[in-house]
Amino acid sequence: MKSMKQTTRNDYARRIARVTEAIFRDPARARSLEDWAALANFSPFHFHRIYRAMQGESLADTIRRARLTLAARALAMSARSVTDIALEAGYENAQSFARAFRGFVAVSPTQFRATHRAAADFTLPSPVVVTRKDAAMNVEIVELAPIRAHLLEHKGPVASIPETWAGLWRWHMQAGLAGRALYPIGVCYGDPEEDCGFRYCAGLAFPDGVAASGEVTIADIVGGRYASYRHVGPYSGIGAAFQKLYGEWLPTSGHEPDDRPALEIYRNTPYDAPPEGLITDLLIPVK
């Protein structure tokens, strides 16, 4: 009899495989992140993190690979012009296609066509879901009460998120709230490695009665069941820890991600702990 862990992993793998099969079946078809998430029956908030963790590449990378694979087959098996094939693959012109194609197979489209004229020389690979080895992670299922937080929404590239945190700390000092925050909290919608649909808010939890001002707003973060993992170490390791949660722990846990954002609860800060002593609770909402 299969274990619960293996059954859950197989279920996740089948759902991710539905996506990769759809991509390779019709790579030119445009779909939204919500469409892909629905196909895999995952929450849009967490689908791409699960996909990237299990596949080892982003959704955009898979689509690009599928389009270039079909383009390679068209070059090998037809006499169509490079421009027509480039446009079908989703590229604006033959030049941008040629650059991407050279990066894919290390030769130009013309060179590839000259050396792969027979259909037997090039076959379309089947999409394969990556199987990863489980890693021991001390994860607890916790019941979190609703949290009222003062949030500053991040605007700009992911790399500049620390600037948003710096802006929130400046606001709390200028508002005369130094020492009153209970704890900092990060609220994450989507995958920071995927531009489409990603949102992040830096937040501070205060006792009741603290007003917001400027770009800082007050929001209620929904409580409920969360899978909680305590990350100890520099903030630079948070992304990798989340990837292990989504790619290794979650598919073998027997749990499903819920339609709520992931959270980062900071138990101390760089002001009172060295990088190796920073403690951050990473929480994924589960059903």
Automatic annotation (TrEMBL):
<dbReference type="Pfam" id="PF12833">
    <property type="entry name" value="HTH_18"/>
</dbReference>
<dbReference type="GO" id="GO:0003700">
    <property type="term" value="F:DNA-binding transcription factor activity"/>
</dbReference>
<feature type="domain" description="HTH araC/xylS-type">
    <location>
        <begin position="17"/>
        <end position="115"/>
    </location>
</feature>
<keyword id="KW-0804">Transcription</keyword>
<dbReference type="InterPro" id="IPR018060">
    <property type="entry name" value="HTH_AraC"/>
</dbReference>
<keyword id="KW-0238">DNA-binding</keyword>
<dbReference type="InterPro" id="IPR009057">
    <property type="entry name" value="Homeodomain-like_sf"/>
</dbReference>
<dbReference type="InterPro" id="IPR050908">
    <property type="entry name" value="SmbC-like"/>
</dbReference>
<keyword id="KW-0805">Transcription regulation</keyword>
<dbReference type="InterPro" id="IPR010499">
    <property type="entry name" value="AraC_E-bd"/>
</dbReference>
<dbReference type="Pfam" id="PF06445">
    <property type="entry name" value="GyrI-like"/>
</dbReference>
<dbReference type="InterPro" id="IPR029442">
    <property type="entry name" value="GyrI-like"/>
</dbReference>
<dbReference type="GO" id="GO:0043565">
    <property type="term" value="F:sequence-specific DNA binding"/>
</dbReference>
<dbReference type="InterPro" id="IPR020449">
    <property type="entry name" value="Tscrpt_reg_AraC-type_HTH"/>
</dbReference>
<dbReference type="InterPro" id="IPR011256">
    <property type="entry name" value="Reg_factor_effector_dom_sf"/>
</dbReference>
<protein>
    <submittedName>
        <fullName>AraC family transcriptional regulator</fullName>
    </submittedName>
</protein>
